[in-house]
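Handout, section B. The chain below has 203 residues.
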Amino acid sequence: MLVCSRARMKTYRRGDVLFLQGDTPYYLYVLMAGKVALVRNLISGRKNIFFEVEEGDVFGEQYFFNGEKSYWYGAEVSARAEVLEIPMEFFSCFCNEACDHHRQLVQNMLNILAQKEWTTMQKMHILSPTSLKGRIAIWLLEEADGEGVVKLTMNREALANYLGVARPSLSRTLMKLQEEEVIAVDKKEIRILNKDFLDDFYN
């Protein structure tokens, strides 16, 4: 199937560019190993890193389906990377063989797009409150298990980036909620002690 699609595996060094903001999209990318950052060049000359691609993630896929003719962002390698690059036309038609693997790959892409849309909707919901305490409250309620425990899969810096705030502000607010006995913070988890308090932020 990879031969049929004319896919290629490429190795990139740190600092290499996969594509630039404004380039024409030709490939869907799968990060097999390493690190890639999606960056937006601002008119001031600064760069804004708005997403870090993780190993196994697909990126650039939205340009295959929405008709955009150029990338809104660029992709730069932040640590030596192995990238699978699949031509976009492979997803828009079937070859004469019409093999089951091809159909499965297209179905997988639709599943990936649906999952990313759901994840985006969840994040928009979490970021809807204007106050940091409100964002933390909704995030805790969304992530908690049946016993009111949130297993921490992100470090403090990553969580701050996810919530769109500075790390010191996040730490202060978590400490304040702990002092108010709303939550109990551990290194690997956060336990909700006062669910009613957090529920108020939904209103």
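Note. The chain has two domains: 2-92, 126-202. Compare this with the example in section A.
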